[in-house]
Design a protein that fits this description.
It is globular and about 35 Å long. It starts with a strand and ends with a strand. By secondary structure, it is an alpha/beta fold. It contains five helices and seven strands; from the N terminus they run βββαβαβαβααβ.
Length: 171
């Protein structure tokens, strides 16, 4: 296994490989989760000088649109922006609300004016293939899909649940 566990909570699992952060997240994204993500990003940036992130939102994804959460997400993006080499966000859920959630995240990314390539997906394999092919990444990450996908897939299976649900928007 090439990935190292950084945080292991019931609804949030953070792993890293070099400058790559893998965030497997279930259900609502809270301020506590954003704090954990910020801490992980800070550590990776301090050690690697860059950051690449693959964020997988699983289950009944709740996109919290409260002012505090939006502000924290925008601050996280702004703080990491100078070091970010790419980001893929996966919302696995199906249906209209999941599609709307993908659109909201795309909009937030646009408003945050991130310098790195960012894209929202429904399929983790497709997201990882796209993300790891970006030329902005340092050599250990760039072009590493064939090497890293088996470990990513294994972690996704390890952190799977049978009750994957639909996305919803909260405000």
């Amino acid at each position: 296994m090439k990935f190292t566990l950084m945080k292991d909570d019931p609804d949030q699992h953070l792993y890293r490989y070099g400058s790559l952060l893998l965030n497997i997240h279930w259900h609502e994204l809270s301020l506590n989760h954003l704090t954990a993500i910020q801490n992980a990003c800070d550590q990776i940036i301090k050690e690697q000088g860059s950051l690449t992130s693959l964020i997988v939102l699983r289950g009944s994804v709740n996109v919290d649109l409260s002012n505090d959460t939006r502000r924290a997400a925008a601050n996280l993006t702004a703080k990491c922006n100078p070091y970010n080499t790419g980001q893929a966000v996966v919302i696995e859920a199906n249906g209209f609300m999941a599609s709307l959630a993908r659109s909201v995240i795309t909009g937030i990314n646009l408003l945050a004016r991130a310098k790195a390539s960012q894209k929202v997906f429904q399929d983790t394999r497709e997201a990882a293939a796209w993300l790891l092919s970006l030329q902005a990444h340092p050599p250990p990450i760039r072009g590493s899909f064939a090497e890293l996908w088996p470990d990513i897939e294994k972690l996704m299976q390890l952190r799977s649940r049978t009750n994957a649900g639909a996305a919803k928007i909260a405000g």
